[in-house]
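comment on this one:
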Amino acid sequence: MAKYRIDRIRIPDEFRYALRSVSENFAEHAEMEPGSNGITLKGLSPEQSLAHSVFLLTSEVDELIDNLNIVMGDLEGLSEDPRHLHDQNPFNRFQFLFRMFFYEYARFEDLFGYFTKWQQEQGLLTKVERKQSRDGFYAAFEDAFRIRNVLAHDAVEWRQCTMEIGLLQALEATGQTAIDSKGVALSWKDHLGPICTRFAEAFVHIAHPMRTFWNMELAHLALALVSEGRLKKAKKPFDVQHPSFLRSGRPDR
């Protein structure tokens, strides 16, 4: 199991019950799209349609989280064996992973924009409230976005490129062995490994608050929809293995 990762976001039970009601009758709702391999869902109730929209929105967020986990997992692998992917220069891969984390992380802002647009279309936010919500989102994660902008638009000075890594890059490129002042051969694992570990740990700390933010947004959304009578309140935690659920073939709500 990967050491450096974050979990996917948690969909509130109210949405999960509504989605379960769709999956139980999937054959009745599913319809092939002509001329493609896609599937559309027909005959959904307003509640099911809401839950399905939330599912589509959150699926993109989970995809982003998966991508961040890939980056952190690759950093972990690079820290344990910088040569395991047979790179001539493992530091190039580190730089790529470093940049990729922030490129992907910045997409959270786009997804939050889509999310608030959907909320506005559903009458849950006014245009002014949507702008305030997006401004608040950016302010909360401004530091991470600023780093991303530097990486995307400015020249980067890789301060973590130590003298030892510089020697490894320069000499190995010409087929020579890098050695330190004591005549000991330098290794990528000893000098790049700790850097990869340090940033993998830092990335977990950067990514986790974003997941917490999305969990809170979805929880508030579920409460708002329940209070408006557009979503049924879950009477018990969602559990696909619950005996009454299996007996009745429908969620006990």
